[in-house]
Amino acid sequence: MTTHHVTLNVNGEAREADVEPRLLLVHLLRDVFGLTGTHIGCDTSNCGACTVHVNGESAKSCTMLAVQADGAEIRTIEGMADGANLHALQQAFWDQHGLQCGFCTPGMIMQAAWLLDQNADPSEEEIRAGISGNLCRCTGYVNIVKSIQQAAGSLAAGESAPVVAAATTGGQEVSAEPAAAG
Amino acid sequence: MIPAPFDYVRPADLDGALRILSEREGEAKLLSGGYSLLPLLKLRLAQPALLVDLRDVTGLDGIVETDDELRIGARATHRRIHENEIIARYPLLHDVSGGIGDPQVRNWGTIGGSVAHADPASDWPAALLAAKASIVCRGRGGERVIGARDFFLDTFTTAIEPTEVLTEVRFGRRPRGQGGAYVKLERRVGDFATAGVAAIVRLGDGGVIAFAGIGVTGVSPSPFAATDAEAALAGKMPSTEAFAAAGQAAAAMSEPVSDVRGPADYKRAMVAELTVRSLRTAVERALANS
């Protein structure tokens, strides 16, 4: 089996690898690059847990080959926070309890980020249509929609999220990584 | 799930792709957006020896009107089609392109990929059949233009030769007095259609139906043109009775099977109802365009 050399920009960093043509983008991200924030849910392009941005467009990374993404700019959940500052969407999911088990959260946030890129002030209906390719197994959609509404508002107001990396709740350390909640 | 091993090439242009298809005749599959093909590869329902990625083949994604045709390049994504200002004047195509799969699928899936894949429950074939569109296939020897009604042969089977590339889909330009609509029933957003009906109606002198085109998907081995329903409408004034008769005719031509999406009787009843709904909207749009 011949391998192909791929070069990608992932969250602003140049990455490269020799891959089999059949390697899926999600496996490249998780298993080769160690970026496990992107989740594999259904593995059949239904659930959207693996959603990342490829050249600015949201994509289900379980339904794209790594070789197809050769040369592309990839953004994953790990590329959302600015150091200790959560992205407005991450902060909003926290504030609005937009996650229960957290498994769908990385994909939800990446799809919501794409949606807000397209439409900075979406209606509730537009939000629901925009995340229709992402399933929440806890059925926590009401708070997910609220989270996206909050993020749209704070992004429009130009607010940056507060520093939360060292925050504690009831004596327990709280991680700034929503992906870790899975 | 991991696909079986395959080789991968990314030709720089169409000639390169055609050359590879000839050299590896029968072994190669074309890859466009991948949202139809990759699930099949992962389920190992398809195990081609070679994937030919059309990613770098430029010039296949245009959306243009000529004097008498609307031409959509095979690599135009569903989303680009849906957002295109020309397509805003083609309500059937606007309906279809906005309802395929989900946003991520529409970001990457292409009209050519979907048409060539010919899933028996996919959306584009219904529209192409209703509109009597034509499909352009390029081989090393030249180009063939195939009518949609001669194109969808059976489940996942079309008139494309293994050495050809589907390059374009062509529709007649929308005349005054014509409207179209696509209505589908799905269990949830993003599922394949339980049943879907595309309708085009052109109103002639005195408001009679001068042309009716009806394409049906999800309820037979391959999407089909409901020619009996079209015949039931020709020359009639639009009316509840005429639409109901067309619905019954379309349902009678369906060959649904009972499965997780419902029993066959239910699906046949849905074809009748969806036909009525698509005709009603198509006529409203035809009147608005008169």
From the structure above, extract its key features.
heterodimer, A: 182 residues, two-stranded antiparallel ribbon, disordered C terminus, B: 290 residues, 10 helices, globular
Describe this structure in words.
The complex is a heterodimer of chains A (182) and B (290). Chain A has 182 residues and is an alpha+beta fold. In chain A, 29% of the residues lie in helices and 16% in strands. In chain A, the strands form two sheets. Chain A has a five-stranded mixed beta sheet with strand order 2-1-5-3-4, sandwiched between helices. Chain A has a two-stranded antiparallel sheet with strand order 6-7. In chain A, β1 and β2 form a beta hairpin. In chain A, α2 packs across α5. The radius of gyration of chain A is 16 Å and the shape is globular. The N and C termini of chain A lie far apart (35 Å). In chain A, 48% of the residues are buried. Chain B is an alpha+beta fold and 290 residues long. Helix content of chain B is 33%, strand content 25%. Chain B contains ten helices and 14 strands. In chain B, the strands form four sheets. Chain B has a five-stranded antiparallel beta sheet with strand order 4-5-10-6-7. Chain B has a four-stranded antiparallel beta sheet with strand order 11-12-13-14. Chain B has a three-stranded parallel beta sheet with strand order 1-3-2, covered by helices on one side. In chain B, α8 packs antiparallel against α9 and α9 packs across α10. Chain B is globular and about 55 Å long. The chains are: A alpha+beta (182), B alpha+beta (290). At the A-B interface, β4 and α3 of A face α2 and α5 of B.
